[in-house]
Write a structure and sequence with these properties.
- It holds the Pfam family PHP.
- It is a single chain.
- With 301 residues, the chain is α/β, with parallel strands linked by helices.
- It has a domain of 205 residues: TIM Barrel (Alpha-Beta Barrel).
- It is 34% helix and 16% strand.
- The strands form two sheets. It has a six-stranded mixed sheet.
- The protein is globular and about 55 Å long.
């Protein structure tokens, strides 16, 4: 496929993610306004945005390349690791089965998180939490929003609502309460990292997302057969980290991607579409070629 990539962003979230703000259509408007010619919406554990964007195929002059994407929550030992899968057929039964397994496990995790918070003295109703999530799996955003409705919780939530963590309350709340070692962490495994990679390695281009967040892991532990690329450029990474992951990619013959991990300013303030720091569009040329080789999961809109 002869195509000039231009500006790009391969990691962002829409309102189909439990912690996204903008609809896929709103994201598309921003993408086109900013002259971004290649993008992917990698919502958490759902293909809803991919299915929605497919209906826009060719609708806007076929100048923007959209690549199917999803960010999968997997576990490597006791650590949650996010893997972005790209270029898959959205009807892939293997992927759909993986997502159904995730949903069942996440529902159990939600119930246990509610019980844990209640045991800590928080006022929180499981049914109201689900209603607040609009049918999606409740995220840290949903939890904090629902908890903040009860004045009895105000003192415990002060740091997030008014104090030093209020500039990015949802992200801070999630990391303080729900990651391993957090105040309301519960041991419910989602998807096994190696099993998930093995199942999808011939069906999608698989990428280790924002590796800089896994400070308690040697990233090279995660490089296994089926991992094709590493998200070296990310809004989470310093210039030193970017170089570190570029070196790792070179050493292991991995492709390189770049993503802003945009969620919306209310959720992650200051993170903008296209703001991943990579200005060399040729970086992802080999990635595009690998996606095209799959023959599915990309189209112009």
């Amino acid at each position: 496929m002869e195509y000039s990539v231009g500006s790009f962003d391969l990691h962002m979230h829409s309102s189909h993610s439990s912690d996204g703000v903008l609809s896929p259509a709103q994201i598309l408007t921003i993408v086109r306004t900013r002259g971004i010619s290649t993008f992917s919406i990698t919502d958490h554990n759902t293909l809803a945005a991919c299915n929605e964007m497919k209906w826009n195929k060719g609708r806007y002059g076929s100048k923007t390349l959209f690549i199917n994407g999803v960010e999968l929550s997997t576990f490597h030992g006791d650590r949650e690791i996010h893997v972005c899968a790209y270029g898959f057929n959205e009807s892939c039964h293997t992927l759909l089965g993986i997502l159904e397994t995730f949903k069942r496990n996440r529902d159990l995790q939600t119930q246990m998180r509610v019980e844990k918070l209640q045991d800590m003295g928080f006022i929180l109703d499981y049914e109201e939490l689900h209603k607040s999530s609009g049918g999606k799996t409740p995220s840290g955003v949903t939890f904090l929003t629902e908890l903040s409705k009860h004045k009895e919780n105000a003192e415990k939530l002060y740091d997030y609502l008014e104090g030093e963590k209020s500039l990015s309350p949802f992200t801070n709340f999630y990391f303080d309460y729900f990651v391993k070692g957090g105040k309301a962490w519960v041991d419910v495994r989602m998807l096994d990292y190696y099993e998930t990679i093995e199942k999808l390695k011939d069906k999608a281009v698989l990428c280790i997302a924002h590796p800089g967040l896994y400070k308690d892991r040697e990233i090279e532990e995660l490089i296994t057969d089926g991992i094709s690329c590493i998200e070296a450029y990310s809004t989470y990474h310093s210039s030193e980290q970017v170089q570190k992951y570029l070196d790792i990619a070179r050493k292991h013959n991995l492709l390189v991607t770049a993503g802003s991990d945009f969620h919306g300013d209310r959720i992650k303030p200051g993170i903008h579409i296209g703001g991943h720091g990579c200005t060399d569009s040729s970086v992802i040329d080999p990635f595009i070629e690998r996606v095209v080789d799959l023959k599915y999961g990309f189209y112009f809109i």
